[in-house]
Amino acid sequence: MAAEEVQKHIFISGKVQGVGFRAFIRREAAVLNLKGWAKNLVDGRVEVVLQGEKNKIAQMLEKLKEGPSYARVDNLKVNEEELGDYSDFKIKF
């Protein structure tokens, strides 16, 4: 039986821009075989869409709460979404 696929739309606040946070997300998404995208927002947050197996999304959310060592994550706002049509993980500009 195939694992359940889910999609999450996440807004991350804290010291998350200019510290390689999006590159960290892309690397971790590749390890977990997740699809979607990440981009910086003008208000200082990072916006992320993740799609993949439910258990791998849960693992990724734990990684996002910590972030890379040079970042500071203050808050994660996570929303469930309908599955989109993503073939890989991208950083949007």
Automatic annotation (TrEMBL):
<feature type="active site">
    <location>
        <position position="40"/>
    </location>
</feature>
<dbReference type="InterPro" id="IPR017968">
    <property type="entry name" value="Acylphosphatase_CS"/>
</dbReference>
<feature type="active site">
    <location>
        <position position="22"/>
    </location>
</feature>
<comment type="similarity">
    <text>Belongs to the acylphosphatase family.</text>
</comment>
<feature type="domain" description="Acylphosphatase-like">
    <location>
        <begin position="7"/>
        <end position="93"/>
    </location>
</feature>
<dbReference type="InterPro" id="IPR020456">
    <property type="entry name" value="Acylphosphatase"/>
</dbReference>
<keyword id="KW-0378">Hydrolase</keyword>
<dbReference type="InterPro" id="IPR001792">
    <property type="entry name" value="Acylphosphatase-like_dom"/>
</dbReference>
<dbReference type="InterPro" id="IPR036046">
    <property type="entry name" value="Acylphosphatase-like_dom_sf"/>
</dbReference>
<protein>
    <recommendedName>
        <fullName>Acylphosphatase</fullName>
        <ecNumber>3.6.1.7</ecNumber>
    </recommendedName>
</protein>
<dbReference type="GO" id="GO:0003998">
    <property type="term" value="F:acylphosphatase activity"/>
</dbReference>
<dbReference type="Pfam" id="PF00708">
    <property type="entry name" value="Acylphosphatase"/>
</dbReference>
